Each structure stands twice: as C-alpha cells, then as structure tokens.
Amino acid sequence: MRYWLLKSEPDEFSIEQLRDRHTEEWTGVRNYMARNFLREMHMGDQFFFYHSSCAVPGIVGIGEIARVAAADPLQFEPASDYYDPKSKREQPRWSSVLTRYVRHLQPGITLEALRAEPALEGFVLLNRGNRLSVFEVPRNIWNTILKLEKAKQR
DNA sequence: GCCAACGTTGGC
DNA sequence: GCCAACGTTGGC
Fold it and tell me: Is the pTM of this model over 0.90?
C-alpha cells in the first residue's frame, strides 16, 4: 500500500464535504505529473487530505482510494472549468480517482506545525515553490505526521 | 492583493 | 528544440 497527499481548496471541496458524501470523484487535476500519480494509485491506498489557499492551510484528514483512475468526466463537459477541448474520448487525457472518507485528523496539522517539525525536513510538501496537488508521501513521513497528531492530543 | 515559483504555450 | 511570455498556484 502506498500513501499520497491530495490538495484541495476547501472553498471548492473540503474534508467536511467528503465526510458527508462518503465518497467523491477527485476531478479537475490538470497537471501531467499529478495525473501520472493518480494513475499509479491502487484501491486501498490512503492519502492525507490537505486544505490549501485558505486561512489555515494544512493536513486535515485521511481518505482512501475507492476506485483506481478512470477518465475524468469533466474534461468532456464544455460547461466545466475543467473542460479540455483537445481531449478525445478514445484517448482521454485526464484521469480521476474515487476517494472515500476515512477520518479527520484530531487535531489537524497546520502547515506551520509541519514546518516546525525537524523530522519532516525534505518532505515535498514543504519544498519552496511546491505547487503539485498530488504526490506520494513516504511511509516514514506518513508515520511521523500521525505521531505529531498523537502528540498534539495530550 | 502581492509576488515567487514554476508549468505550459507558442513563435521561431 | 529553445526559450520568452504568460498563466496559475498558493503562502503570506
């Protein structure tokens, strides 16, 4: 099993919405590196749900992959912001996975707190200028972040 | 709202 | 295939 991080602006789609709907198609990824990661995901892989471009950015919860990548339906919807007129149905350019809610982190781990943790030095998320919205989380980093969550419960 | 970082586009 | 211009992301 592999671990991932998925970013979303909570104004667009939040962890609360994923909790309420149980599952949701993770659409709208329009970057080739991010898309390639989506295509590597397996059923049961877990991911950190990250809230970006908001008052307190950070990791807010955990989800899992409920279905492997398939054609992102929005690329064929002319009315969608994510419409891609160059994508062909015979060979779709963009992919989406089905995500399922697992749990909130309690408490969430803010970007500020992540940056303050020496063990996380070198984690892609914290790299200067990182804009990728989908990437892998190494197992040791995953475990470190879960330990941080536990430590903050005391 | 600013701006650094960086991916993408398109002219050549 | 190079690379300048442009657009987007995302923290602050």
Answer: yes
Q: How far is the CA of A86 from the C1' of B11 (A)?
A: 21
From residue A54, how far is each of A27, A42, A86, A148 by CA, in Å?
A: 20, 29, 32, 22
Q: What's the CA gap between A121 and A28, in Å, rounded?
A: 29
User: Separation of CA A127 and C1' C12 in angstroms?
Assistant: 16
Tell me which residues from 59 to 98 on chain A have a beta carbon below 7 angstroms from nucleic acid strand C: none
Tell me the pLDDT tens digit for each residue of A91-133.
899 999 999 999 999 999 999 999 999 999 999 999 988 999 9
A13/A82 Cα distance (integer angstroms): 15
Residues with Cβ < 8 Å from A9, sequence gap 6 or more? A51, A52, A53, A54
Can you tell me which residue has the tokens 């492997």? A68
Contact flag, residue A111 CB and nucleic strand C, below 7 A: yes
A 18-37, residues with C-beta < 7 Å of strand B = 31-33
